[in-house]
Structures are given as C-alpha cells and as structure tokens.
Automatic annotation (TrEMBL):
Protein name, entry field: Long chronological lifespan protein 2
Biological source species: Meira miltonrushii
Keyword Signal tagged: yes
Leader sequence residues: 1-24
Keyword Signal (UniProt): yes
Keyword set, alphabetical order: Signal
Length: 143
C-alpha cells in the first residue's frame, strides 16, 4: 500500500517539475506584454490565397518578429526574448546565425528598404538600409 502512495507522490512531483520547468527557465523575467525591443515588429501584407492552420507555440514573455505574409503566407514567427536571444516557434534553444538567416522576418522583412535591424539580424549585422526618422527607432511598414 505504501509503495503505491510513494509512486503517486513521485508521479505528481515529476509532473509538477515538468510543468514549472519551462516557465522558470524560459525567460527569467515576468514581463507579460511581449515587448522586448524598443520598437514593434508586427507582420505586414496579407495572405489571400491560403488558409494558414498552423498552431504556433509561443513564449508569452517574448516578442513576435513579424514578416510579410504576402511573401511567406503560412509560417510561425520567430521570437526575441528578454534574454536577448531569438528562438524559432518550435525551438527551446536559441537560433544559430545560420538558422536565423532562414527565419521569415529576415527573408520577408516588413521594414522599409529591405531593412532588418541588427538586433534581429543574423550575426547582429544590419541588412539593407535602415533609415528611421530622426530621433525615432525603425518601424515596420504598416501595409
């Protein structure tokens, strides 16, 4: 009888540890609004041909890196998290620079002039011409 209650207790403990592990290790920050960068990164464009039925697993403390949905109609966004690292929606580890170069926000940017700001670009090297209005941060196209 005692071994059954011990097994139940161990199973409960293992389940509790599994559930809380992702929350405690993911961000280290209780920020709930998803704003990590000093500017927004929404998606732009529209997908009129395909119904995208992906279910994207997202971290609630991270900021989605939007992309042009008219160029890549169905994909999940990468996310930048408070630890400064960028994760794919399916990944629990930071993206390498090579993996980052294949993410939708890099391949189909919403920023004007093909800009991908250094904070979210592979190798932290700005892509394209990023010329925000004087005294402001870059903003994506609103189309």
């Amino acid at each position: 009888m005692r071994s059954i209650s011990t097994k139940i207790s161990l199973a409960f403990f293992a389940f509790f540890a599994f559930v809380t592990m992702g929350e405690s290790t993911s961000e280290g920050n209780n920020k709930r609004d998803g704003s990590v960068l000093p500017y927004s990164t929404p998606s732009c464009g529209s997908n009129t041909k395909h119904a995208c039925k992906f279910t994207c697993r997202k971290k609630p403390h991270c900021q989605d890196l939007g992309f042009d949905r008219s160029k890549i109609p169905c994909s999940c966004p990468a996310q930048i998290c408070p630890d400064g690292k960028i994760y794919a929606y399916y990944s629990q580890k930071p993206l390498t620079d090579e993996e980052l170069s294949e993410q939708p926000h890099v391949r189909a940017t919403c920023f004007p002039h093909g800009c991908v700001p250094a904070a979210i670009a592979p190798f932290h090297k700005q892509i394209g011409v990023c010329t925000p209005p004087e005294g402001t941060d870059p903003e994506p196209n609103s189309s």
